[in-house]
Amino acid sequence: AGAITSLHRQLEMQESQLRAMKSEKEMLQKRLRERDNQLQAMSTKFFSLKQERQHEEIMVAIEKENFNLRQVAMEQTSKLAEQSKLIHELQKTVSELQAEVLSGQHHIHKLQRAQAATQSQVEMLQHRELKTRVALECVISRFEKYRSKVIQATFSTAGSKPPQVEVTDEELLQAMQKIINERTEFHQMLKQKGIK
């Protein structure tokens, strides 16, 4: 009976210790769940903060990229404006050069027409000159024949000596004048004597 009683006490003590251990286990499990919940909450909060920070970093990077893109766009717009101005100036220069070329071509065509007209006039004048030369040679030939006949007639009269050298126009005129004067005197003498 003493041994049984002793065993009962030990059993009750062990049961009491077991209950205490169960109670402590439950309390520890509860605290563990609370810590786990806290940890989960902190983890969630940390993840959220991390995501928010990443989002902010991404937004900052996007803003920076947007700023850089705006700068590039402004530079490209400025370059485009300069190129447009240059193109406009080049188009203006091209138009002026085209106008000058057209004016030059018009002037060249005008000169070509004037040259053609001048060439035609030159050819006409050359033709006239040729005809005039032919006519002049014909007149000179006729004049020389006539002069030869006049010289022959002048120096073939009685009392005249044929010329030994070429007779000048002045000498021929003097010889003719002499013959005319002599004939006039002879005519006057015959008239005075009554001879027709």
From TrEMBL:
Source species: Atlantisia rogersi
The protein's name in its UniProt record: CCD27 protein
Keywords assigned: Coiled coil
Claim: NAD is one of the keywords in the record: no
Lineage of source species: Eukaryota, Metazoa, Chordata, Craniata, Vertebrata
InterPro entries: CC-FHA_domain (IPR052642)
Coiled-coil annotated residue ranges, if any: 4-45
Record-linked PANTHER family: COILED-COIL DOMAIN-CONTAINING PROTEIN 27, FORKHEAD-ASSOCIATED DOMAIN-CONTAINING PROTEIN 1-RELATED
